[in-house]
Amino acid sequence: MKLWGGRFTKEINELVNHFNASLPFDCRFYAQDIRGSIAHVTMLAKSGILTNDERDQIISGLTGILSDINSGTLKFDDGSEDIHSFVEAHLIERIGEAGKKLHTGRSRNDQVALDMKLYTRDEIDETDGLLKTLLEELLTIMKANLDTFMPGFTHLQKAQPITLAHHFGAYFEMFRRDRSRLADIRRRMNTCPLGAGALAGTTYPLDREYTASLLEFDCATVNSMDSVSDRDYLIEYLDALSIIMMHLSRFCEEIITWNTNEYQFVEIDDSYSTGSSIMPQKKNPDIAELIRGKTGRVYGALVSLLTTMKGLPLAYNKDMQEDKEMAFDAFDTVKGCIGLFTGMIASMTFRKDRMEASAKNGFTNATDAADYLVNHGVAFRDAHGIVGQLVLLCIDKNCSLDELSLDAYRSISPVFDEDIYDAISMKTCVEKRLTKGAPSRTSMEAQIAFCEKYLLEN
Ligand code: ARG
Fold first, then answer.
1. C-alpha dist (Å) from residue 20 to 12, 82, 94, 309
2. Higher pLDDT residue, 196 or 278?
3. To pair with 397 at 20 to 30 A between CA atoms, which of 81, 94, 100, 422?
4. Which portions of this protein are annotated as coiled-coil regions (predicted)?
């Protein structure tokens, strides 16, 4: 049954019907659609547009539809054009005349704008919860690894020693910002479009602020044209999801590298790995790779919607129906990735011995050797040159700076003394970095206290 058959004399072409229909994907927000309709009729009765009896009949019909969909007894297989038509048709079938009044003072344009907002708002909350669980896991790993020394990299070349706690702390900050982006979007989007009508409001005395409060919005939207044509919040959310994926993808890239035979910094648990059909020795980091790979499709959803929206004149255009499928795919993808990623790092083994050995063997303490000389009165540029020669010597002898004899040190600069070994130990190199945000235990304890407080309050 079509909602708009009156002015038509011919049946719709079957291909057109199929091409136009959105029920196969907008059935996803049936619960939001029904919730919106219940708020709408509650407001219509309060404003004297429907009687209380009509309201009650409609609400009980809608509640029945909701529970039948939930239980699986009512299926989306009747060929309805969209979820709005589906619910209205079933309501009329169930309760008769009163059902025909549901759509009073409403258009599918403000209805779909509402449904998509309600659905997205629920999604934001769910994604935020998953990110919080991820942050809790990161914090657990940070707390257990304040003394797990490892090389910090720049250009993927070993740079200076850090700790695993410090490295994971960097990702804590990224995902903390992601959560704050979600909160910003939620705050900005939380206005109710229902009552905007097709584009120009309605002639009924709707109490839009009341509807807004029933649906837990901060207020009703300001302009009815904007209300039905705004998908900014969805673009913002897809942008935030893209950034979350970018963070996960960078993290996955590191874990894939750390899990290689060459690094062996971590071992991904068997339960999060896969094997090869031909090579018996293989244990592949497929989950990390898939998360990295799926980043592309989430970016795709963002670019797709931006492109769909860029040429649209005001107000509603059917192009906007294209906001759904890729957005839903992105929502599902990101939630799945956050959950899997959290499980993967929670079950991963950290090879502390390998990390520390790698930090030692890569001259990550060379800056500290130069600082030693500076503290003994040598100018930094000269100190840099002296340590550079020491590194060359080490490469020649195939040893680390710690393994070089004092005589070898003195052969390049007489300033060196026995205390150089303590000055360039991994522990000293890290512990002397006391500035806010640096890897020393003292700085990291402050960072962890901050993270703990944040998780308690957010
Ligand atoms: N399925 C439509 C969408 O997703 C619902 C709104 C349809 N409005 C209309 N006037 N055809 O955007």
1. 10, 9, 26, 18
2. 196
3. 422
4. none
